[in-house]
Amino acid sequence: MTQPVWLVVLLLCLGLACPCVTGIFMDKLASEKLCADDNCLYTISLARAEEDYNAPDCRFINIKKGQLIYVYSKLVKEKDSGEFWAGSVYGEQYEDHMGTVGYFPRSLVSEQHVYQEANKTVPTTVRNLQKP
């Protein structure tokens, strides 16, 4: 083989042995959340956005002032953390975002209608589901 081919093979081997991509650590927002059921599948309430919100990372959703949001869980506030709820946006002009669930600050919405009480405390960690 010629020298350029060996150089390419060497660079490829080095690239595979030392990957340059690293993950980004994201702080945990809370250890527990309040839900209507054990799996947080049922809607707790309907909220209306009072201000626009641009999501800072993939855990959050963008919301626009006036937009309706179905709320599925409410994080239990810890120490100096903010108060966040998890929900899904709703509305014709945001159809591409419907079904996307993410967090948003509770302070930016007003609860319009409560469907059921959030009286189940559920850990935010992933649980191992065992088959019966």
TrEMBL record:
For this UniProt record, give its keywords in alphabetical order, as a comma-separated list: SH3 domain, Signal
What positions does the domain SH3 occupy? 42-114
Give the organism the record lists: Steatornis caripensis (Oilbird)
SMART domains per the record?
SH3
Would you indicate the residue range of the signal peptide? 1-23
Q: Does the keyword Signal apply?
A: yes
Protein name in UniProt: OTOR protein
Q: Which residues cross the membrane?
A: none
InterPro entries found in the cross-reference section? OTOR, Otoraplin_SH3, SH3-like_dom_sf, SH3_domain
User: What lineage is on file?
Assistant: Eukaryota, Metazoa, Chordata, Craniata, Vertebrata
Q: In its keyword annotation, does this UniProt entry include Nucleotide-binding?
A: no
BP GO terms, sorted:
cartilage condensation
